[in-house]
Amino acid sequence: MLVATYDRTGPANEVLRVTEFPTPTPGPNEVRVRLAWSGVNPSDVKTRAGSRTRVLPFPQIVPHSDGSGTIDAVGPNISSARIGERVWIWNGAWGRAHGTAAQYIVLPANQAVQLPENIDLAAGACLGIPALTAYHAVGMNGGVQGKSVLIAGGAGAVGHYAIQFAKIMGARRILSTISSDRKAALAKAAGADVAINYKNEDVAARVQAETAGQGVERIIEVDFGANVALDQQVLKRDGDIVVYGSTALEIALPFVPMLIKNIQLRFFIVYNLTEHDRTRAIEELTALLKGNRLQHNVAERVSLNDIVKAHEMVEQGRVVGNVLVQIP
Q1: Listing from the earlier edge strand, what are the strands of the sheet with 148-151?
Q2: Residues in CB range of 29: below 8 A, 6 or more apart
Q3: What structural domains does the chain harbor?
Q4: Contact in structure between 92 and 105 (CB atoms under 8 Å)
Q5: Among 118, 116, 59, residue whose Cα is nearest residue 87
């Protein structure tokens, strides 16, 4: 089978290559998926680049945790009725050497989730990290029913879903930060009431104006290191900041202002959701997909042979939405 792989960290054009591996066979409680699409996420790019560590967990890695395709073989203990099932994948490359940048992947059966027939396979490759991250960030700890919410980066892969989930879950008012008119239009089409361009507006002043000086009750944060000072300014007393990302690995906190406002910080990574939280998210996500209640923003589609281009687009932030690799 064809795969994209790397055996050392570094720039995409230096370490990524397309080659052939033996086609895997599913073992007990596993399925094999003939992949159609592989989703490229910032975490995939950072791991390949060595931005967190240059020590690879495996001698050779097939990247990407997200993907979609069709089950074409099952191992012992798995019903043959699953053969032919259209599925989307979560945690394909988390703690594993072989992710979705390949023609086939073998993984535990529960990590291949049935995709409703009304949903395109390309959209399925956007669900594992972006949609599940957004759903958990919005719905955790009581959710956002009746609350005002600020979603940082509302035109991004996670933020775009987060706006939609906040709307569906009954947020009273949804604000989002963006960096262009095009991104503002995308955020508003997803359900944002207010889109604030952080490049040419005073975000803190605008949030206060839009909330009658009260601030928002939840912030869903894509870059806590960059926005920590702003977040404590615009968050209402007793509010919470849900953090799923940061460009800075160590962050100094404005302790006293956050202490006085009783601010609650909540951190999570989607790879490590509890079984209960993941099951709940998948069940409710499936219901929303069946009802065609979600917009999916596929920004770019490239071939497996152009995987370097895909990584560079994500790394450089050149696209608005999800980048997918089409598997031949």
Answers
A1: 194-197, 173-178, 148-151, 216-221, 235-243, 264-267
A2: 75, 76, 77, 78, 108, 109
A3: 2-126+296-326 (3.90.180.10), 133-271 (3.40.50.720)
A4: yes
A5: 116
Within 180-236, residue ranges assigned H as helices are 181-190, 203-210, 224-234
CA distance 282 to 269: 16
pLDDT along the chain (328 residues), means of 10: 98 98 98 98 95 89 98 98 98 97 98 98 98 98 97 97 98 97 97 97 97 97 96 97 94 94 97 97 98 97 98 91 97
- Please state, in angstroms and rounded to a whole number, the distance separating the CA atoms of residues 222 and 243: 7
Supply 131's token pair: 């949609």
Q: Is the pTM of this model over 0.90?
A: yes
φ/ψ of residue 142, rounded to 5: 95, -10
Phi-psi region of 147 (alpha: psi -120 to 50; beta: other; left: phi over 0): beta
- pLDDT per residue over 112-135, tens digit each? 999 999 999 999 999 999 999 999
- Gyration radius (Cα) of the chain, Å: 20
Q: What is the distance between the alpha carbons of residues 306 and 325, in angstroms, rounded to a whole number?
A: 8
What confidence tens digit (pLDDT) does each residue in 297-316 have?
Answer: 999 999 999 999 999 999 99
Structure tokens at 36: 């159609």
What is the rounded (10 degree) CA torsion for 35, 81, 290, 186?
-10
Q: Are 220 and 187 in contact (CB under 8 A)?
A: no
